[in-house]
Design brief:
Layout (H helix, E strand, L loop, with lengths): L9 H15 L2 H19 L5 H28 L1 E8 L10 E4 L6 E3 L2 E6 L9 E8 L4 E8 L7 E5 L1 E2 L4 E7 L10 E4 L7 E2 L5 E5 L7 E7 L6 E6 L5 E4 L8 E2 L1
Parallel strand pairs: 1-7, 9-15
Antiparallel strand pairs: 1-4, 2-5, 3-4, 5-6, 6-8, 9-12, 10-11, 10-13, 13-14, 15-16
Helix pairs in contact: 1-3, 2-3
């Protein structure tokens, strides 16, 4: 004889109260529970009835349990089990991503990916689900949309890539915090895209990096010591301080 061991994760166990609640609200579930209640009351009030009567009550109880089990099965099969696979730019699987969805909820980690269990009826018919994935330390992220329809066990693949669309913003100042206009600012490796700081020393240019990623910036102006400095890409402004020739340059 061969025994099969079925492993149930804690995440799946957490779904059972919702499944039972959903089953209990269906017409068939309500009927099954009422039938079971009537049978229990009948058995309690007529404990001394003849064997045939008690057998009929037991049959009604058994039937009600079968009906209720059927409603739970239907409630379980109606749920969507969305399997998520995250891959890198080269198509290789990524196991250390942070995954979430537009419907909320924490996914279960399964072999080869993640799984969202989404109760049917918790959203409008044919509504789009967006799955997001991110590996912060690699500055890589991505998302994929999926329309939830008749297929209850869909699989969605999210490809993550290192975003390089963030801007670099900041200002150029002198030692006394006075703005330095007309300084040339460029990202190392993309010097041809350099810009000139404005009247108040401000500048903005493409960082060729992801949000919060550090990039090396080169700044120069006649009469000041040219300097290189690491700045974060994104909305955090970078203040670069130039010193006149003969003094050290610094930044913050």
């Amino acid at each position: 004889m061969v025994y099969t061991v079925v492993q149930v994760s804690s995440k799946e166990l957490e779904q059972w109260p919702k499944i039972i609640e959903a089953a209990s609200k269906t017409p068939l579930g309500i009927f099954a529970l009422m039938l079971l209640l009537i049978a229990v009351l009948a058995l309690a009030f007529f404990r001394k009835a003849n064997a045939k009567y008690r057998m009929a009550v037991f049959l009604i109880m058994f039937l009600s349990l079968v009906l209720y089990g059927y409603t739970i099965t239907r409630a379980t099969s109606a749920d969507y089990r969305v399997r998520v696979i995250v891959v890198g730019q080269d198509g290789s699987p990524v196991d250390n991503a942070h995954v979430w969805s537009s419907f909320g909820g924490e996914p279960m980690k399964i072999e080869g990916g993640w799984m969202f269990v989404i109760p049917a009826g918790s959203f409008a018919a044919n509504q789009d689900l967006t799955v997001f994935a991110e590996v912060k330390e690699a500055f890589a992220k991505g998302n994929q949309r999926l329309k939830l329809g008749e297929e209850r066990n869909p699989t969605v693949t999210v490809q993550i890539a290192r975003a390089r669309t963030a801007k670099l913003r900041g200002s150029i100042e002198a030692d006394d915090q006075a703005a330095i206009p007309d300084a040339r600012v460029s990202v190392i490796g993309y010097e041809e895209e350099g810009v000139i700081s404005g009247p108040r020393g401000g500048f903005e240019l493409l960082a060729h990096a992801a949000e919060d990623e550090q990039v090396e910036v080169h700044v120069e102006k006649n009469g000041y010591r040219a300097t290189n400095m690491w700045c974060p890409a994104g909305d955090s402004p970078c203040v670069i301080i130039l010193s006149r020739v003969g003094n050290a340059a610094r930044g913050r």
